[in-house]
Amino acid sequence: MPERTAKPKAKRATRAAAARATAVRKPAAKIKKSASASTAKPGADWREGTLARMRALILQADPAMIEERKWRKPSNRMVGIPVWSHHGIVCTGETYKQVVKLTFAYGASLPDPSRLFNSSLEGNTRRAIDIREGETVNAAAFKALVKAAVARNADKKL
Q: Most buried by CB count within 10 Å: which residue of 4, 69, 70, 144?
């Protein structure tokens, strides 16, 4: 009787392997979205522009101001919230559908002769400025408010 040799068994392809083998791969450039396209919301242009103008005023008022991004979460597209600090938190900037909100951590203890604060007025500690589309903020009064917040923080550190 002739000697039998075992034939190698053919590998069975799984459905997933078959799907991968037949899948059409797209170039990485077409798959990858730009960072601005993936994080920008429709209509976000005025909010980002307003926040950029307010950032510039904050840095003009106090060039030693530190800006950090904190509290990254899905609701803010994992970008975080800008937080400006000097001897402690001065203010935060958030963008919402209808407003750009600048919240001063200790705004209730700051003088506001120009009445810039128009939100969170009922609290004992913080105050906020809500800026709607098309509105402008008195630059000199805002800078004075930022300077007062920095001075308040410096006094509390002593």
A: 144
